[in-house]
Amino acid sequence: MQQIHHYINGQRCPGRSGRTAPVFDPATGTQTSEVLLASTDEVGVAVKAAHDAFDSWRRSSLSERTKLMFNFRNLLELNASEIASRITAEHGKISSDALGEVARGIENVEYACGITEHLKGSYSEQVSKGVDVTTVRQPVGVIAGITPFNFPAMVPLWMIPNAVACGNTFVLKPSEKDPSATLLIAELFQEAGFPNGVLNVLNGDRVAVEGLLEHPQVSAVSFVGSTPIARSIHQRASAKGKRVQALGGAKNHMLVMPDADFAAAADAAVSAAFGSAGERCMAISVVVAIGDAADPLVEAIRQRSCGLRVGPGSESASEMGPLITREHRDRVSDYIGEGIAAGATAVIDGRESQLHQHGFFLGATLLDHVTEEMSVYQDEVFGPLLSVVRVASYAEAMQLLTANPYGNGAAIFTSNGGTARRFQQDAEVGMLGINVPIPVPVGNHSFGGWKDSLFGDAHMYGPEGVRFYTRAKAITSRWHAATDGDRGVDLAFPSTS
Ligand code: NAD
């Protein structure tokens, strides 16, 4: 059985814990390799490598970092199809989607290529006579990144480029379900010329994560994953005095007003609900049909969903691939059953699709007349299941959205600019789309939710990423000219006059 190794201090490392986890091809249901699961001692080895590399890396020039980041960007471009094929082989998403993920990851490397601009700092001349103040931003130290299965390339690339460009070193703990794409990225990073130890990849599970949270030389933690784990990571890392940003799960609503273009709204709903088999934190999982929108909209979504071609992600004809594991596929199936038992109407029941027997496939499901009390509405299902909730008014739709504990993304489809603007002002979410269903901000903005979708106060990548990976230092300096004369002893509190 092929083994997926750690990557520490610029080289592949065999495991010492004796523990491994199986990695599957979700399209066939067969195990293709096993991944090493690190012990607490191995966490120590990876953190030591990052810590040893830190002092020299933080002193590297911005132009050197920029040059290496450009090299890294070019290598990612050159190897995009290999990274994408590793994603498809272990995650299951279709090839074009995997390539899209790589492209969105590269955006963040490009942003980090501008680090000379992002770290310019600020300067105030003559705040008092002969006194100037400069604020600079300096790196934090060793950063631990912990990432989810659903974007094995993009989410690590939300973190690594800015963290490293700011002068930090990094230990990444990717998802144990699909780690191969992440390891290739680490090898390309090394090939770009970064010194040993600047980026280390430690495979593992809860043991590795807990080791990173406990380690005194880890200064900050960037986490992306489900809400219960995000909440606990935030609490534990904060209790240890670490800086932490922990992005959690989602339940993204798409409001459709009666004045919307229903064809465009249905296209968007189907793409955003069933793309990547619904395993996206920015997937639309609830369509809120307002007033007269419901009947024509549900019919338009039905027409577009019932013919979706479900199959292996590596086949060009496939539009939707399998789910990540058999257990997850079965859990999503259970939610469909619970929704129907609670009174939802199955416009399309994905469990009835006769799909490849051995892979973890499930057809697209459309449930209408879903209500707030149903588990299918309350929980993050994370599968190809779109719920339609019917409400009478915009006000009712907003009550629903506001009451929901998640606040990652939301969208509105309308032809009325006034309604859109009101929504923009009122929706309690971190990312919002107006006639756009998956509003993932581009790399020069930042990504993050509100409420139970993010614990901590910094969003990820872009300007907020640079802020998270640096700390401010304000320097007040006085240089006397010979002509200024002596000020003498003065015990009063310094003032600026
Ligand atoms: P997950 O929370 O199960 O795992 C995320 C990471 O945490 C993995 O590296 C995993 O090994 C580790 N982990 C799992 N259980 C742990 C535990 N008990 N203690 C410590 N570490 C643990 O998430 P997942 O299933 O890999 O990914 C899907 C989830 O991630 C969904 O909830 C999705 O919404 C969310 N997600 C959120 C965003 C966002 O930006 N908000 C982006 C992508 C995914």
CATH homologous superfamily of the largest domain?
Aldehyde Dehydrogenase, Chain A, domain 1
CATH architecture field of the largest domain: 3-Layer(aba) Sandwich
CATH topology of the largest domain: Aldehyde Dehydrogenase, Chain A, domain 1
Number of domains: 2
Bound molecules: nicotinamide-adenine-dinucleotide
Q: Order of strands in the sheet with the most strands?
A: 15-16-17-14-13-19-20
Low-confidence stretches: none
Structural class: alpha/beta
Q: Report on the biggest sheet.
A: 7 strands, mixed
- Assembly context of the chains: single chain
Task: Determine the strand fraction and express it as a percent band.
Answer: 15-25%
Output the CATH class name of the largest domain: Alpha Beta
Task: Write up this protein.
- There is one protein chain.
- Helices cover 38% and strands 23% of the residues.
- It is an alpha/beta fold.
- It has two domains: 2-248 and 453-475, Aldehyde Dehydrogenase, Chain A, domain 1 (3-Layer(aba) Sandwich); 252-434, Aldehyde Dehydrogenase, Chain A, domain 2.
- The strands form six sheets. It has a seven-stranded mixed beta sheet, sandwiched between helices.
- The mean pLDDT is 96.
- Bound molecules: nicotinamide-adenine-dinucleotide.
- Nicotinamide-adenine-dinucleotide (NAD) binds at residues 146-151, 155, 173, 175-176, 205-206, 209, 224-226, 229, 247-250, 281, 380, 382, 408, 449, 453.
